[in-house]
Amino acid sequence: MVIFGTNGMLGHALSEVLPDAIHLGHPDVDITDEIPVKKMILRERPFAVINAAAYTDVDGCEENQDLAREVNGRAPGYIAAACSEAGALLVHYSTDYVFDGTRRDYREDDHPNPINAYGESKLLGEVSIQKNLKNYRIIRTSWLFGGHGKNFVDTILSLSRQMPAVRVVNDQIGKPTYTIDLARATPDIISRAPGIYHITNEGQCSWYEFARAFIPNAVPCTTAEFPRRAKRPEYSVLMNTKTLPLRHWREAVLEYIHAKERT
Question: ∠ at Cα 72 (70, 76), nearest 5°?
């Protein structure tokens, strides 16, 4: 098994769950360079490839749309084409931001309609994979937090110690997901039929409600009061209709914070 993107937050979690895989970060293989990607996969001929590499800076994608399309859009197609030639299956992670947020929840077969450059690039990645490979598992997930990377939980904890009150938007609704839980669910997805899967921790909330679960000084504000470069969907709740649910996000975030405190 080969895992791309092991220097990232999800990649680190996958490395812990799948220690015997070949772990590759950007210095090892640049996934936007088609020829080295193909050579490596054909050389190793793994039964499965997991792609956790991505450009995940949502606001940065607005400023660097060409880079976003290359990393999130075209590179997964390169990996898929190589997997097809090598006879390998591909697991790839996508996002709730492929949807526009005009509905209260989204099933795996709902029609995507992204409203920002990040979502557009990730949808391009899904399409690129489907054009090049039949034996794929695309996992859409949302609001990731975990060790070894910048994430909402760490940012809010830091701000809470520095400020008397931390403003957090209360009109964007989604499902927080712990990278360790997502990584642990991945081997089960590998064993399932090809297709698209929605995997998140259970429970939905606003960013404000998420913050209130682990800091006492969060105060609500609207998206209009806290403008960002990229437009965010109002509702991006992913419904998992194909697999057993993961534990509730509240349990997961408390475990993550307690683990941080012990280190």
Answer: 90
d(CA 182, CA 128): 23
Residue 21 phi, psi dihedral angles, 5° rounding: -75, 165
Q: Which of 118, 136, 197, 256 is catalytic?
A: 118
Verify whether residue 178 is a known catalytic residue. no
> Which uninterrupted H or E stretch holds 114?
none
* Residue partners of 237: CB distance under 8 A and separation at least 6: 96, 104, 105, 106, 173, 174, 175, 204
Q: Please report where in the chains the tokens 């509240």 appear, as a residue.
A: 250
DSSP secondary structure, 214-256, as one string = T-S-EEEE-TTTS--SS---SB-PBP--SSPPPPBHHHHHHHH
- 183's tokens: 């990584």
Q: Is pTM, for the whole model, over 0.85?
A: yes
Q: d(Cα 54, Cα 56) in Å, to the nearest integer?
A: 6
State pLDDT tens for residues 107-117.
Answer: 999 999 999 99
The domains of the chain are located at: 2-150+176-202+236-247
CATH class name, domain 2-150+176-202+236-247: alpha beta
Q: Say how far apart CA 111 and CA 100 lie, in whole Å.
A: 10
Residue 147 is predicted with a pLDDT of: 95
